[in-house]
Amino acid sequence: MQTKRLKMLFIPCLIFLLVIGASAEVKKIKSMGNFTFVRVRGTIPTPEVMKILADRYAGDIKYGFDQAGYGDIYLAFIEQLKSAQFEDITWNIGETVKWMLFRSQGKIKVTGPLEWAGKKPLEVFAVKVKKGFKTYTFIIPKPCGNIALLDEVEEIPEAICNLKVSPSKANINDPITIDMSGSQYAKSLRVEVFDKQANKVSSKELTPDAPRWQTKLDKPGEYVFKGTAINLADKPSTNTCEGRVYINFPPLARVVPNCVDCREYIGRPLTFDASGSSDQDGEVTRVVFELSDSNGLVVDSLTATQKPYIWEKTIYSPGEYTISVTAYDNDGAASIATPESRKTIKVTRKTLFIAAEAGPLLAHGSYTAFAFVRTGMFVWLNPDKTSLTFTSGAAVPFKGSPWKPVITVNLLGNVHMGKAFLGLGAGFMTKERSDRKAGADALGQLGVTLSNNYLSMWQLYFEFRVPIGRSFSDCHKMAVGLRYNF
Length: 486
Fold this sequence. Notes:
486 residues; mainly beta; Immunoglobulin-like; 6-stranded antiparallel sheet; rod-shaped
């Protein structure tokens, strides 16, 4: 009795007839035969029972999928079947499946395409399986367990563009990184760069395997990076995909020296004023001064970190110099060289001095002492090497008659050896006694420079005068002088 009831229950699955035609023709099924994939005892099974049977006969299912040429979706089918939603639908008359997996004489076979040609729609389970961008719809007749592929639909998703730009603020020629790795469902990527006036500056084609790009921007201002992701159907993404970068304006450096033709400035402080440096979109935070000689060698430098950015510098060698300044703003951008940031100056040394000297003088003839004062000029012929001294003045004796005040004139050529110097020349002196004559003298000085700041000098010297045309023993003279050249 029970056996008869089971036979009555499985009548829809007892007959499976195929109308065999040419391989390219659709085969029609008018009724279900006894070629079932699995036999199920009891009432029509629930989806849970079908999942268990599929797991139990996984090997047979794999064999069938391979035979059908769909072995690549077998794993997806088995995995997704465990949690799939079984939908109750009907296989309608005239509706075709691509292929059906069944068992004949204990062997797994696949046939298709198949068209349902029964008298009424056949109740089936429908299960959807996704792999890649395709959705496969399988039907399983109740309760045969045969597996048929109803259709497959390629569902290419819209590409989603994702673009990140870093940093958001940079200086000229800093590296800018564009990252589109967050884009989805794209086969290709594109990024375009526009300036504030909407002019395209550059563009780059990327791929999901190489979604990053590093570029540089050589002009300040605001830039927009617009990204596009292209899906497998060559359709561009529609979502907003932008990034912005602001390229910092570099500061402008300006230097003003207190002189350009700096005559007699050796030993005097020069002033280089960079307080006029400015920044369009920030502020100047430091200024670097560099002083170079005529060969381009940097002889000194200074970094000023506080306003007003002024450098006082004393130069001790004459020549042509270039003062250059570089300004840095609060974002670290450096100014570029301009005529306003570089100035050439010529520095010369003081060579002509007023000379004033005084000291004691001894005149032979009991070596009477005089006190003398002279003024004149000191001239460098070759600074620190050779010079000329011309002075004139008066000497007053400490004794009375026959000694009398005299007028002296000196002209010497000097050779300098470091601080020491030797002077040779000629002089003139009026008669120092009423019983002597005025006359010329051969003159020599041996001295030392006590101090020299290039603007003034103190010198101490010993002077010896030899009379020309007069008695040496009566008319030679010696003096010690202190000279101030200024």
